[in-house]
Amino acid sequence: MIETNETIDEFLARHADAVSEAVRKAAAQEILPRRRRLAAHEVDEKAGPHDLVTDADRKAEQFLTEALSALLPGSVVVGEEAVHANPATYEAIRGEAPVWIVDPVDGTRQFVHGDPGFCTLVALAHHGTVRASWTYAPVHDRMATAVRGQGAFLDGERLHAGPPEPGRELRVATSHPDYTTDEQKHALLGLRAPGVAPRPCGSAGLEYLAVARGELDATAFSWEAAWDHAAGLLLVEEAGGTHLTRTGEPFRITGDNDLPFTAARDAATARRVVALLAGGA
């Protein structure tokens, strides 16, 4: 088992490219062949009509679980579909072993509808800190990666989020109403303010990538599932952005966050979004 951050750094120096290759293979073998070819019996609802799972999700997660565990002996995998089957699996995020956090198809609803707006998310965390992440958009064959302290990259090109242009409306992607409590809905109403242009989010992973690229100013999300956030939050951080909960603290993948929270291109934007969310509440 890896016991020190230095050892994880050494692992990433040797095997980060192998992780990227595993993610690409999972998409090529299990996801893309099923795109626009799903039969009715290959799509199921979980919590409701907007919370879907397909054979592509299950097969890709199985592929990645086997591949990532083999790359890093002693690690554990927390995947969205495994946690759905056994919620206790999620506790590994708070454990001592390095943990792979996997969302095999982030944006399953878009995938089911044949849209290209989905991605595969993988993050490597240890002791509650995300150390590296991979965000892969398979339809466009674009891979975004980040290693803590080493920057964020899209297809090898360094990402810099940068501050929004002065005087322009703030573009914010927000949680779908189906995934918010009444209190969170009220908080999100704070974004309906002059100079702010909120819109419903798509794939969380792709929204985080848009923030890291400076194409989106911020997000405002109301759920904690680590597989949706871990990879993207590191990507935003390493591109120069930041993330805050309504109490002004960084989002914790281990949970117990004050929601909604934001990830933003820069600290000033994050503080502005948090203030609006607090005002809405």
UniProtKB/TrEMBL annotation:
Its EC number is 3.1.3.25. It is an enzyme of class 3 (hydrolase). PROSITE patterns: IMP_1, IMP_2. The keyword Hydrolase applies. It catalyses: a myo-inositol phosphate + H2O = myo-inositol + phosphate. InterPro entries: Inositol_monoP_metal-BS (IPR020583), Inositol_monophosphatase-like (IPR000760), Inositol_monophosphatase_CS (IPR020550). SUPFAM superfamilies: Carbohydrate phosphatase. Keywords: Hydrolase, Magnesium, Metal-binding. The keyword Plastid does not apply. This is inositol-phosphate phosphatase.
